[in-house]
Design goal:
Distance between the termini of chain A: 21 Å
Oligomer: homodimer
Radius of gyration of chain A: 14 Å
Strand content of chain A: over 45%
CATH superfamily of chain A: Jelly Rolls
InterPro entries (chains A, B): Cupin_2 (IPR013096), PKS_Associated_Protein (IPR052044), RmlC-like_jellyroll (IPR014710), RmlC_Cupin_sf (IPR011051)
Number of domains of chain A: 1
Keywords (chains A, B): Isomerase
GO molecular function (chains A, B): isomerase activity
Mean pLDDT of chain A: 91
Order of helices and strands of chain A: EHEEEEEEEE
CATH class of chain A: Mainly Beta
Pfam families (chains A, B): Cupin_2 (PF07883)
Low-confidence stretches of chain A: none
Largest interface: A-B, 40 and 40 residues
Protein name (chains A, B): Mannose-6-phosphate isomerase, cupin superfamily
Chain lengths: 124, 124
């Protein structure tokens, strides 16, 4: 049973509390899915989620999702879903604020494990 | 298998093509969940989703989610999750653009069936 939230969460304000990069925070949950937010800058790591799609929404900045055959460039309010099994590597030249939506327990680096691999943290 | 999308979708532009109210369109999908968008104005109908949480994100305007014990008012960039089993009735005094996230097949009026009950449509 999902606990009743006490009120709305402002996504823009939520980003204000984040200082580090590539460290996803849980904004809220919908059933067994997490809505995560992160600030990102630089290049992440090539990885694949074999069992799940991954939604990216850019709130501020610009995110390039490198695929093996092309780059997908997302500006503010752009949404892109990386289908399951598709290798990708996000990067951002300047600091960028993103929202992700994926099943609980999804590892941020997918089938790759390295120093970027972290668990989602609570926002506060 | 989710088909590979060809490029990003801009959520703001997507709303431009919508003229009617309370008629959700599928923006994209993540596994067996739909990201839906709708323009809303006026009062919807009291209903409950017994088996699923429902996420609301306001993009423009103001949405009041009436609960039986209180109102939750969402402005732009505010997110609120109505937990499963919680009776609610959205309303908006002026036209408001919202994003919803819920499992495919979720009925917009939940356990209530009336003239507001519609299937999600494709965006284009």
């Amino acid at each position: 049973m999902t606990p009743a939230p006490t009120g709305p969460i402002n996504t823009l304000t939520a980003f204000d509390s984040i200082r580090d990069h590539w460290q996803p925070r849980r904004l809220t949950s919908v059933n067994d899915y997490d809505v995560k937010i992160a600030k990102v800058q630089g290049e992440f790591v090539w990885h694949t989620h074999p069992d799940t799609d991954e939604l990216f929404l850019v709130v501020a900045g610009e995110l390039t999702i490198q695929l093996r055959d092309r780059d997908v460039v997302l500006g503010p309010n752009d949404v892109f879903v990386v289908p399951r099994g598709v290798e990708h590597c996000p990067k951002a030249d300047a600091e960028t604020s993103i929202v992700m939506f994926e099943p609980k327990g999804t590892i941020n680096t997918g089938d790759t494990r390295n120093e970027r691999t972290v668990s989602v943290r609570e926002l506060h």
